Amino acid sequence: MLTKIKQWLAAGSAKQRSGIFIGRERISVLHQDTEQASWQGQEYPMQAGQWQQSLAKVFADCTKGSTLHLVLSPERYQLVQLDKPQVANEELAQALPWQVKDLVNIAVDDMVLDYIELPAALQQVTKLSVVVSSKSWLSELVALAEQAQLHIASIQPEEWLIHPITAHTGHSCLVVCHQPGEDVMLQVMREGQLQFSRRLRGFNLLHTLSLEQLQQGLFDSLILEMQRSMDYVEAQLKLAPVRDIMLLCQQQTVQQLQQLLQQSGFSRVQALQLHANLAGAEQLELARYWQAIAAQATSREQRA
């Protein structure tokens, strides 16, 4: 899959770059004109069981020759965490498929994988976050782009993309991320570095609930899982305690959770703030387009 392992197509010198998030129920697209530095967002429905047709429509609406930076939702990959194998770094990519083969349901000969290192406390073993996807599915995806005369420069997992776009607070920060129809994602980061990530099932309708409905038990479940995650980071991973909470949700949900969290004793709660180098992106609806924004942002870092 991903940029470290293989760039499927040369990016070229296109005048338009597009960040595209391939979600469970929708496809979010963010076009950026490289000459005018303008952003244009658009959403498409993802038809159940018809992802090829849905993406073909998206690709057909892109300017021919455009460079694409794709972001996959968790339905299209599997993420595992494990101790870093005791092999030379140049042999790590070859060793990892055999390390994760019993942890995922993708055959070794159909795996495409990448990894990042997670920070470790003093004297602890280095942990890897490993993302695995299907080579056959990705090949079909690439073929669709080629047919539309588009250039795929990168394909990335959603889990790895919040921290590059988030303004640094100087302290450890817990991000609570939720989008319609999706599980809640909790991530702990510090100074732009991902430290911990997990998904919470059972919260996919969070955006539909009123404040009163949240108070009928769902918020209690959510704050319990948040506290467990913060305790795990501090007590088990021996990392710095969380000081700030940032919310990446629809505006109404942000307001409701901010109120309830503050009532529960968390004073440092706010909506997620974009990194200063993303001027212009703050005009977009962040809860809808953050993955596409992140795809654009990380692509700039890779070119720098």
Q: Briefly, what is this?
A:
The chain has helices at 51-60, 92-100, 135-147, 162-165, 211-236, 251-263, 286-303, and strands spanning 16-22, 26-33, 38-45, 67-72, 78-83, 111-118, 127-134, 151-157, 172-177, 184-190, 193-200, 242-248, 269-271. It is α/β, with parallel strands linked by helices. Strands 3-2-1-4-8 form a 5-stranded mixed β-sheet, with helices on both faces. Strands 11-10-9-12-13 form a 5-stranded mixed β-sheet.
Shape label: globular
- Poorly predicted tracts of residues: 2-13
Oligomer: single chain
| Strand fraction | 25-35%
Q: What kind of sheet is the major sheet?
A: 5 strands, mixed
Helix content: 25-40%
Strand order of the largest sheet: 3-2-1-4-8
The counted number of beta strands is: 13
Radius of gyration of CA atoms, rounded to a whole number: 19 Å
Number of helices: 7
How much is the average pLDDT? 86
Distance between the termini: 21 Å
Structural class: alpha/beta
Order of helices and strands: EEEHEEHEEHEHEEEHEHEH
Structure description:
This protein has 7 helices and 13 strands. It has helices at residues 51-60, 92-100, 135-147, 162-165, 211-236, 251-263, 286-303, and strands at residues 16-22, 26-33, 38-45, 67-72, 78-83, 111-118, 127-134, 151-157, 172-177, 184-190, 193-200, 242-248, 269-271. The strands form 3 sheets. Strands 3-2-1-4-8 form a 5-stranded mixed β-sheet, sandwiched between helices. It has a 5-stranded mixed β-sheet with strand order 11-10-9-12-13. The chain has a 3-stranded antiparallel β-sheet with strand order 5-7-6. Helix 5 crosses helix 6 (251-263). The radius of gyration is 19 Å and the shape is globular. The relative contact order is 0.16.
